[in-house]
Amino acid sequence: MPLYKRPDSPFWWVKIGRKTRESTHVRHATEPKAKAEEYERVLAERLWRLEKLGDRGAISFQEAAERWLDGSARPKRRDRELLDWLNPEIGIEQVREVADPEVIEQLRKRGIAAGWSHSTVDRLMGTLSAVLKDCERRGEITAPAFPMYRKPAGEPRALTPAELDALCWQLPMHLALAARVAVHTLLRMRAMLQLTWSRVDLEQRRAWVPSAHQKAARTFGLPLNSEAVRALRALRMLSGPKSAHVFTWQGAPIDDCNGSAFLKATKRAGVAPLRWHDLRHTGASWAVQNGVTLPELMLLGDWRDYRSVLRYAHLAPSQAAAAADKLAQWAAAPRGHARGHTRKRARRAK
Q1: Is pTM beyond 0.70 here?
Q2: Least C-beta-crowded within 10 Å: which of 10, 67, 198, 219?
């Protein structure tokens, strides 16, 4: 019989063939056996499709989720929590069946019924989408579109130099200096706040961010321009010689810059609504408007793919104009083959 009990476990266990031995997570003392039998039936069907038909979409969602988590160098604590919630719901189901829009809509409704906010449900959809898109890249399924409650992202918000000055005037000194560093280094907030003085060289004007602190999960070395160096020197005096972290408040490292002090300052400066991440967009926008090419911007901001910097392409019309002029010059330039062809036609006409 495929279902059996183990003396060291309170759950029903299932045995299929020589290789498959796993728990059904159904307690034999308190839950109906029919639930374990359903688990065994679904598992047997999935294994049969996988082994006999070669159906790559027949792997379980739980297996696909663990594979996605293991393939990332960054910790995904929140994603793991959401996947733990999904496991009893769809863990044993085939990813091909999970990729059904009706199943996805049912999961959204269950999240709302559980009392979750729209943002939490969107985060659940994002995690589910990431797992299924990983399966799509492996050629196992075709990932569907995922409905979201949040509005589509618009054009990135960027401050003008005058607006940044007004914001920094309203911020406390430690946050004003941090805002200057954010704009002139393009660092993301979490990576910036974990920066230590041991990874900053003000003499050589460079800094290093370890892979564990980067969204791209790779070590990032960044140059420091004169404005960033000026702000960091002031932070060195403000934090004191014994501080290991660059960004501190009252001797303790800063954990988040999007606090009440920042939000109130944005309102007083007249730039609200504004997120701290918009300072990264501000630095990127200024760079492109002052002649930095998109490939150079990709290196400065440590973006993982070129598509991420294309949002700033409209800020560099002069670069596009130069490219258009090169095309016109190439088209108008005389060519030996064309001149020779013209001479032959002239001889024939004579």
Answers
A1: no
A2: 198
C-beta of residue 278 within 8 angstroms of C-beta of residue 156: yes
Return the H-helix or E-strand segment holding 23.
Answer: strand 20-27
Residue 144 lies in a domain: no
Q: Which domain holds residue 100?
A: 61-137
| Inside any domain, residue 339 | no
42 with 111, same domain: the answer is no
Helix H, strand E, coil C: the string for 104-152 is HHHHHHHHHHCCCCHHHHHHHHHHHHHHHHHHHHCCCCCCCCCCCCCCC
Cis preceding linkage at 147, omega within 30: no
Q: Which CATH number fits the domain that encloses residue 236?
A: 1.10.443.10
- Which secondary structure element, helix H or strand E, spans residue 15, and what is its range? strand 11-16
Residue 142: inside a domain? no
SS3 state of residue 294: helix
CA atoms within 13 A on the CB side of 127: 25
Q: Give the pLDDT means over successive 10-residue stretches in the chain (350 positions).
A: 72 66 69 73 66 62 86 76 87 82 90 89 91 86 83 75 95 95 94 93 93 81 93 91 90 90 94 92 91 88 82 70 67 59 58
Residue 170 falls inside a structural domain: yes
Q: What would the two tokens of residue 211 be? A: 């892979």
